[in-house]
Amino acid sequence: MSVIEQLHRIACDQGEDTYIDPQTGYQVLTTQAHLKRGICCGNRCRHCPFNYINIKKSPDVKI
Q: What is the phi/psi pair of residue 18, to 5°?
């Protein structure tokens, strides 16, 4: 399990909506935060539970 996966799991287990990415220092939304929002925001979020449905598919961009 990667460090990101571990941090995400810990944050979710503790009921947190975010955790800090150790490489960038940015806050990252957890899956539960996205579920509270209820819809894909279209920003290619790391833990999007909605299969990135609001992101325009492009052959040169991998999601």
A: -145, 165
SS3 of residue 48 by DSSP: coil
For 12, the token pair is 């979710």
Structure tokens at 6: 């571990």
CA 45, 49, 47, 2 dihedral sign is negative
pTM of the model: 0.81
Under DSSP, the state recorded for 6 is: H
Q: What are the boundaries of each domain within the chain? A: 1-58
- pLDDT, mean of residues 49-58: 88
Q: Cα dist. 26→7, 52, 61 in Å? A: 13, 21, 22
Q: Is pLDDT of 57 > 80?
A: no
